[in-house]
Structure formats: structure tokens, C-alpha cells
Amino acid sequence: MTALPYVDGNMLDGPLGEVFAVDLSSATARCANCGTPGPVAGLRVYSHAPGLVGRCPTCVEVMLRLVRAPDRAWLDLRGATFLQFPMPPDRPR
Amino acid sequence: MGIVTPGFQGRPRAEAPDLPPGQYLTPDFPVLSAGPTPRVPRDQWEFVISSETGTEYRWSWDEMMALPQETPTVDIHCVTRWSKLGTTWRGVSLDTLLDGVDTAADYALAHSYGGYTTNLPLEDLRDGQAWLVHTYDGDDLPAEHGGPARLLVPHLYFWKSAKWVRGIHLTVEDTPGFWETAGYHDYGDPWREQRYQGD
Ligand SMILES: [Zn+2]
Predict the structure, then answer these.
(1) Which chain A residues contact residue B36 at CB under 8 A?
(2) CATH code assigned to B21-27+45-192
(3) Å from A60 to nearest chain B CA?
(4) Reported pTM
(5) With bands split at pLDDT 50, 70 and 90, how would you rate the model's confidence at A71?
(6) ipTM over 0.90 threshold
């Protein structure tokens, strides 16, 4: 096979956008295995599988799994210690 | 459900097989993978069954190949809805591997090179229902299909047939594996269409 066996995390925008109200395309996630933070868009996503598997680009451990049934979805983020999102500045009180 | 298009694969409807519900027939052998493909040299390969008491039973490649070999021809059913009929493999029955293993465990957790895991009841590995296979259709099992050796448990959805299998932990308690902890069914019987939890 000449094609890369994975695609980049930008492909998660649609599937995760179905689950979250926030835009994850600009989120940062930290790998629970090696501790490296990086953009969700930088994950290596294996999509030729029963679900989507997002792996750390540094250590290749699993950071995210998303399984979509016709009427349900499961998101497993145990491989990520945090997700960081850009937010609008707090309004002064 | 279970629709088989007449003429698909050039076979008339009268010869069309009975597929599990929701499956379609494919003449291809799709490659599914949740991660990079491990490359395991045979001289470094080993297969380990560990019992619930911690006893380990190990086979090198040569030791495994010296065991009695079988050539099962079976239908396989992937949870992503393709089925492939009459696939021929060669390998060692799990009955042979479990023959000398002293255990009172009810469950098995298969684990693979690369980190994949999948769980199943130990009884589903016995009685001629499961094999450790190293040959597909007369050729060495390619790495993308799980070589040098994979599990073959054709009566369950194919995610239970762990590619690159390295060993089996025998356990008293059921321990859900890679897909079973992420929404997929704990048992995965294709004829009862047990795809997801609660199916
Ligand atoms: Zn990492």
C-alpha cells in the first residue's frame, strides 16, 4: 500500500462536531501516555476500523476513540489528560 | 437487512448464502486497523497463555508450528457489515493450545502486538470454535491481515479475531477489551446482531 494508513485530525471536525457544541478544530489535547500537548487536528486518525481511533503523533498511543452507532455515540478520552479550547474573553463584572 | 443483490459476484440468487442480519457479501478482504501495523519477525514472535494464577505457557514460532495443524474453512463477519464466505486458513486449534493449561477461568482477554485487546468467554475458544492461524488462502498471513499470526473466532464478529495476537490472559472476571470499552458489544454474535452495547 502506498497510501498513508491514517489521516490527520482535521477529519474529526465533522464527527466530533456532531457530539460537541464547541469547535474542536482549534482545541489542544495532552497525551496521557507521553504528556505531549498538541492540536486535536494533529492526531493520527485511523478510520478504517469499527470506530475512529485518534493516536498521539509523538508516541502513537491512543488518545481518543469515537464509536458511532445509528442512534448513539461513545467518546473515550482516557488517553487524553485534558482538552483545551479557545474561549471568548470573560466579560468584566 | 441481509440483502444479497442477485448477480452480485456472478452468483444467482438461488445460490446466494444466508448472511447474518445487516451484512453484505464482499469478494474482497478489507483491511481494518486501529493503529500502525506491527512488524513481528517470526524468530522474535511468541504466544503466551497466562492463567488466572499467573502460570504462563509459552510457544515460540517453531514450537507452535510443530503442533498439530488444522485447515478450517469458515465464513467471517465484520461488524462494519461486510461478510466473506468460505475463507480458508491454517493454524493450531485453541483446543490444542489450551490442552495442558490448568485453569478455572471463565473469561479470556486476547492481547496483541501493538496493544490491541479483545475479550470473550473462554468456552468460545474451545470445542473447535477458535484457531491461532498463520496462513490465509494458502499463503503466509500478510501483516496487514494480522500476520505473522492472528486469532480466528469466526462465530463472533471479526473484531474478536485479534490480529497480531501475542497471547491470552485467562481471567475469573470479564475484562472488556479495546472496542468493548468504547461502545461495542461484549459478546458480538453476528446472528443476533450484537453490534453495540445493549443490542
Ligand atoms: Zn503521546
Answers:
(1) 5-6, 60
(2) 3.90.420.10
(3) 8
(4) 0.88
(5) very high
(6) no
